[in-house]
């Protein structure tokens, strides 16, 4: 699940400036695999009457002509607070626009996408790529359709407030089957160099899909198994996608909760802007814990995965 921070954090549930990702999947008790894992005006003194001698030697009083009030130059510091407020307002509005429309930051709290995405990877997600487009905007903005092999960030269909990150395996109309951990798409075995298996153990449901569930699955998965299986293959319905984690033995994905509706898709990850080796319990929350702050203060330089910083994220084309 992706976690969305302020900064946000992706399951992989970046809504705060990171999102998080759930990866723990129910499993067979006999399976040795690990569990699925914001100017002043100065006052001028008045002139006093002046005395001067008259023609007859008497002292005459001469009325001084009052001078026009002099306006002191504006104090440049006086306008600074007002201009500063305006600058901050514009900055905040711009950030809100960017984070709600273009990009959003998430953090990966679980391992369902290992080794493509690691626990502690902080991502920037492009929210524009898969956004619904209008009759004019589709010619002006870089919209794309979700393709097989794309890594997608989406709202978890079971709990819409959580954000997941998975790889799209099937698009509408595709036929999907798993035999002994190998995925077959439209009858052809897929070449998947990105997958990661922690164990050779073959689970009767997880690794031979679709089949009879040996664990509790969501009602959406039950509907999928009852109404969208033809000749032993799952057929992806319109406006839906079949998603799986790269860590196939520890991924809570479409095998357990069904299809991803098109309207649930948020975007696709663009870049890992920072990667930090932290445990799931420090990342699997919507706010930064005190333990995580202490850990950062002590180990930020030694536990940062410098080689992953600013790493671009690409899908893998599946034909």
What does this structure look like?
The chain has 319 residues and is an alpha+beta fold. The protein has one domain (2-30, 82-312): Umud Fragment, subunit A (Ribbon). Helix content is 18%, strand content 23%. Strands 5, 6, 7, 8, 14, 15, 16 and 17 form an eight-stranded antiparallel sheet that branches. A five-stranded antiparallel sheet has the order 11-10-9-13-12. A two-stranded antiparallel sheet has the order 1-2. The chain starts with a strand and ends in a 7-residue tail after the last strand. The model is unreliable at 6-26 and 38-65 (pLDDT under 50).
How do the helices and strands line up, and which of them pair or pack?
Blueprint: E1 2-3, E2 19-20, E3 50-53, E4 59-62, H1 80-102, E5 103-107, E6 121-126, H2 137-140, E7 151-155, E8 163-170, E9 175-179, E10 182-185, E11 188-189, H3 219-227, E12 229-230, E13 233-235, E14 240-244, H4 254-257, E15 260-261, E16 265-275, H5 280-283, H6 290-303, E17 311-312
Antiparallel strand pairs: 1-2, 3-4, 5-6, 6-16, 7-8, 7-16, 8-14, 9-10, 9-13, 10-11, 12-13, 14-15, 16-17
């Amino acid at each position: 699940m992706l976690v969305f921070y302020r900064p946000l954090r992706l399951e992989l549930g970046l809504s705060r400036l990171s999102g998080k990702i759930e990866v723990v999947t129910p499993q067979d008790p006999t399976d040795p695999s690990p569990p699925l894992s914001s100017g002043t005006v100065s006052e001028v003194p008045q002139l006093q009457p002046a005395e001067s001698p008259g023609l007859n030697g008497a002292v005459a009083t001469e009325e001084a002509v009052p001078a026009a009030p002099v306006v002191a130059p504006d104090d440049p510091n006086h306008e600074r607070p007002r201009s500063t407020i305006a600058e901050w307002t514009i900055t905040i509005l711009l950030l809100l626009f960017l984070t709600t429309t273009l990009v959003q930051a998430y953090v990966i709290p679980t391992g369902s996408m290992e080794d493509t995405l690691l626990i502690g990877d902080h991502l920037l997600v492009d929210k524009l790529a898969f956004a619904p487009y209008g009759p004019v905007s589709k010619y002006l903005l870089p919209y794309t359709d979700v393709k097989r092999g794309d890594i997608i960030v989406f709202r978890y269909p079971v709990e819409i407030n959580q954000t997941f990150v998975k790889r799209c395996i099937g698009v509408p109309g595709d036929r999907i089957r798993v035999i002994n951990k190998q995925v077959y798409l439209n009858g052809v075995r897929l070449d998947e160099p990105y997958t990661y298996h922690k164990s050779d153990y073959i689970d009767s449901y997880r690794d031979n899909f679709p089949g009879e569930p040996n664990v509790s699955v969501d009602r959406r998965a039950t509907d999928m198994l009852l109404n969208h299986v033809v000749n032993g293959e799952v057929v992806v319905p319109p406006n839906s996608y079949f998603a799986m984690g790269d860590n196939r033995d520890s991924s809570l994905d479409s095998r357990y909760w069904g299809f991803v509706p098109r309207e649930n898709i948020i975007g696709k990850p663009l870049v890992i802007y920072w990667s930090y080796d932290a445990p799931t319990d420090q990342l699997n929350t919507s706010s930064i814990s005190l333990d995580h702050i202490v850990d950062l203060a002590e180990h930020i330089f030694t536990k940062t995965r410098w080689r992953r910083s600013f790493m671009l994220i690409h899908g893998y084309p599946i034909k």
